[in-house]
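Hey,

The postdoc asked me to send both predictions to you directly instead of through the lab channel. I've kept everything plain text so nothing gets mangled by the mail client. Protein one:
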Amino acid sequence: MEQTTQTTLLETFRLFEKYLPNFARTGLFSPGAQQYAGVPKPDYRPVAMVTDRRNETEDTISLTLMPPAGYPAFRAGQHIDLAVEIRGVRHVRQYSVVGDVATQQLRITIKRQQGGIVSGFLHEHAFAGKRFEISAPRGEFVLPATRHSAYVFCSAGSGITPVYAMVRELLTAGTDAEIYFCHAARSPKAVIFRAELEHLAETHANFFPHLFLSEAEGVEKRRLSFEALAPLLPSMQNVAVFLCGPGDFVKNLEVGFSAAQNYSVRSEYFTLPPAGVTEGQVHFLKTGLETKAKGNLLEVAEASGLKPKHGCRRGICHECKAHKISGTVKNILTGKETQGEENIQLCISQPVGQVEIEL
């Protein structure tokens, strides 16, 4: 009887707590109390307030957010989830943290995407005082603990956000290693953080930025590919390479760098790369559906009328994890095939032959 009473009271308090603004929550129900030993729980969803907004380019803004007390520290290159409700529907997107690691100022940058529901909403409604539900920082696209002889960062479009944060952290820490920063954009006006990059080049002799502008005039017009990049790269050993941008852009550079032995490559895809044509058969066990499958398993599930939980659709957020009972899947990003029972990410997994999924 005592346990039942305590459980009822706890449920009542949790219901009441939902209607409190984030800053009013205390004790057991505060955002800080949702962490244990400094590690946020998976459902840790604090509310942060926009304290500043600034324009980066014609279609890109940066928002400075004030999270609640106890919010975990972030590393350069990590991202957060940001949730918005639009016409009664909850949407979640991932944005890289571009704030200064030293000050732990939480800042994100949003490029307005053509037809983008969330990016358009944020551009129109995210001003100082607005509150948004966020997640703890996460992601493994970060600087390695070991020191390297040189660093190469390659990005395109909004893929600049995590690599810019890493470059700034290296330079702030006083590294004397050479840093090569190669970014692809349409024009000089479209380069996010252009003024900051120019300032870093002026104040750090070991920072070498190179812009590849597809719509420039004359000799400045060029596209960033491994073939165009190769003559600019350092010839030394033990070079760390970081790639971020659209899938086909990242894949082209991965293929080029993989042929050399002196590069350690880390990648983050902002869109999925073109996938090879494979065809399999998927059995969704919970619903009993069986279907032929082309493309990734998230798309196959949605085409079959299912609505699995998902977020980024590009292998970053891990929201679309599902349990595979049997069969073989191919990872679209790495090309690696895995067999048997395991947890997989639906958005980056292609079926190879017969596959059984708990959906």
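Protein two:
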Amino acid sequence: MVEYLFQQGEISKGAFRKGAHLKIMDLNGVQGAEVDLLDHHSLHEAAEGVDTVYSMASPMPFGDEGFAEVNSKGLMNILEVAREAGVKTLVHLSTLDVYGFGSAKVTSSSKPSPRGEYQQSKLAADSFLLDAAAKEPSPKITIVRAARAFGARDETLAVPLLKMVESGAVAVSNSPALSFTHPKDIAQAMYQAASGGSGGKVYLVKSFDATPMELGGAMTGAMGSPARVKAEGFFAKSKLPRYTAEQLKAGPRLESTEGWAELGYAPKFGLVQTCEEIAKWYRKEPWVIEAH
């Protein structure tokens, strides 16, 4: 999002949590403010002089990150401070996961059916914002529900796949195709939702569909590796985080482009292009994955 705003000529401020990696912000001339979303007062500096807030803070369920509290109290604090600061637009990033993993096909008419605390907390956050938008028109509130993010710097799918490629064998589920969204396409959708989207509306977006096996094959090809891609089983276990593995097996797939024309949204990335970009990043920016 920071990089996309920079390319659009926007002057942006970045709110970051304590201990966050700030090199991306530094490279794009972003004025940063350290905040705690659970502390209402810490948000005032970040919101001062801001026209648009892009709400993207939501830990994934890969540990004890406190996502439920961030998606409730944290989001309430963001909205309250945005109103106090006179922010005109708030765009919130959500996920197709709010539709649950029980049905593979997601359309604009699909009803959310979250399973598990993470999905339920994301839907509760969406519902809170939609209720707020219905009660008060300012700021304009728009929600972007994106398919599973997949691109450079992704530590929960891209990095494990790359590690498996390096080990010589990529083990993934032999599941149907599911939808993915390149982070730059997510940024595009959020920017367009801010500039042209309708308040109180939810937009569903994706970049491309692929099976987990196709994903593994494309990543292997992008790395120029002879690694084998095979279905996980008793002797070939996936090394993906549990929630990521559940996403791939469930195969949530977006089958609707409703609202794309209104936004002016057109995905720029396909499977092969995305994997090639990830491979290039992996070779040239090792600082991003120092923890690995």
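Summary for protein two, as requested: Residues 116-135 form the longest helix (20 residues).

Thanks,
C.
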